[in-house]
Write a structure and sequence with these properties.
Elements lengths: L8 E4 L9 H10 L4 E7 L11 H8 L5 E7 L7 H7 L3 E5 L6 H10 L3 E6 L17 E5 L13 H16 L4 E5 L7 H7 L3 E4 L1 H4 L4 H19 L1
Parallel strand pairs: 1-8, 2-3, 3-4, 4-5, 5-6, 6-7, 7-8
Helix pairs in contact: 2-3, 6-8
Bound molecules: D-xylitol-5-phosphate and zinc ion.
D-xylitol-5-phosphate binds next to strand 2, strand 8 and helix 7.
């Protein structure tokens, strides 16, 4: 679908939020117009950092009706996806690099009623998705190396987004593209023009002086990019 007509979503990443004040932080992004909450689970093995597991996802589920976009940066994701689904994950995205059985896991995610997402690291070519395209609800293109918030955007990701868009348009037009890492006011327009449907924003929202205003400004820039593309 053309850039002008797609509904672009903003998914604030709680990785950059203050967990001591998490209920307020969630309410804040919800009222400022977040479309989803992006929840990064890390296991200290697939990536050199730890975050949270299913218990926290389950507890956070009580705080909001926003879509939970669970990004699993963990090895052997197939062992844990059912528990994340039970905890309240709506979209479950695992890493291509984290399992040899991507096709089976994508099918399983749909079987358990989740949207099936697959993420590719900066070093993984889009071509690896060619035999999986029909099984995917969402492709997450990493625009930083996974593990931490606040890193700088890897420009090459934009070309990858455009490549994924072409693949999806040809064989799975309902499939969405999410861009994750280093997204801020300076590059949202380019991400939208490349074909992104979902923009993850961690530091650019939660570390801003005025987080709700940062989120609203991001929305204005997305709208402007879409108007310009009409
Ligand atoms: C990084 C995570 C991201 C992270 C993005 O591995 O997957 O979701 O929170 O943070 P920013 O937007 O600060 O780059
Ligand atoms: Zn993420």
């Amino acid at each position: 679908m053309s850039t002008a007509r797609r509904a672009i979503k903003i998914a604030p990443s709680l990785l950059s939020a203050d967990f001591a004040d998490i209920a307020n932080q969630i309410r804040m992004v919800e009222s400022a117009g977040a479309d989803e909450l992006h929840l990064d689970s890390m296991d200290g093995v697939f990536v050199p950092n730890f975050t949270w597991g299913m218990k926290i996802v389950k507890d956070l589920r009580k705080l909001t009706h926003l879509t939970f976009d669970c990004h699993l940066m963990i090895v052997e994701p197939e062992k844990h996806v059912d528990a994340f689904r039970d905890a309240g994950a709506d979209i479950i995205t695992f890493h291509y690099e984290a399992t040899p059985h991507q096709h089976r896991l994508l099918r399983h995610l749909r079987d358990i009623g989740a949207k099936a997402g697959i993420a590719i690291n900066p070093g993984t070519p889009v071509a690896m998705l060619v035999d999986l395209v029909e099984e995917i609800d969402r492709v997450l293109v990493m625009s930083v190396n996974p593990g931490f918030g606040g890193q700088s955007f890897i420009e090459r990701a934009l070309a990858k987004v455009a490549e994924v868009r072409a693949l999806l348009d040809a064989r799975n037009p309902a499939g969405e593209i999410e861009v994750d890492g280093g997204i801020g006011l300076e590059n949202v327009e380019r991400a939208v023009n490349a074909g992104a449907d979902v923009l993850v924003a961690g530091n650019s929202v939660f570390a801003a002086d005025d987080p709700p205003e940062a989120l609203r400004e991001m929305r204005r820039r997305i709208d402007a990019a879409q108007r310009a593309a009409r």
